[in-house]
Design a protein that fits this description.
The protein is 58% helix and 5% strand. It has 171 residues and is mainly α.
């Protein structure tokens, strides 16, 4: 079935609208939130998004960020976004390295909260660092996306290791 002229025009409008929104609103915001020193991204902003209130890093949001960044890279490589994917690839890998280096306890559990430079922090005094398995879940999707985009089995294997650990713990 052939699309009508009106439908083609509408699809073209939507593509331009979403490209513009992603490039000039969404990615512009997150590019300003990058932790270029340590890797990762700062996510603790006021509701208006205009003021950083903490440099702490919730690991679930770091995992989500890797997933988002991987998809931005895919869109750029497919020429659906007008951005250079190279700096996105570099920061994706830097974020994955930050998480791999800092976000795991000796037993393999994912730490829920880190300082900007990677020091574990308790969210509730005395409850430990691994207070939510959702941190593990988001790191899994982030590492899996990282492995796919960077074509590095290391990150995919890290995702599978965490996934298997969760599965064994909840059976």
């Amino acid at each position: 079935m052939e699309l009508s002229k009106e439908r083609k025009k509408y699809i073209s409008y939507l593509l331009e609208f979403y490209q513009n929104s992603i490039e000039h609103d969404f990615l512009a915001f997150w590019n300003n939130a990058l932790d270029k020193k340590n890797g990762g991204v700062f996510t603790c902003y006021t509701n208006r998004g205009d003021h950083l209130i903490s440099k702490d890093k919730y690991i679930w949001s770091q995992g989500r960020f890797m997933w988002i960044w991987a998809h931005a890279i895919e869109l750029a490589q497919a020429y659906l976004l007008n951005i250079d994917p190279k700096p996105y690839v570099e920061h994706l890998e830097k974020t994955a390295q930050f998480i791999a280096k800092n976000a795991f306890l000796p037993n393999g559990n994912t730490i829920f909260l880190l300082s900007a430079d990677g020091k574990p922090k308790e969210t509730i005094k005395g409850k430990g660092y691994d207070t939510s398995f959702y941190a593990d879940c988001f790191v899994i999707i982030g590492f899996a996306a990282c492995g796919r985009i960077l074509n590095k089995e290391y990150w995919t294997q890290k995702a599978l290791t965490i996934y298997d650990k969760i599965g064994r713990a909840h059976v």
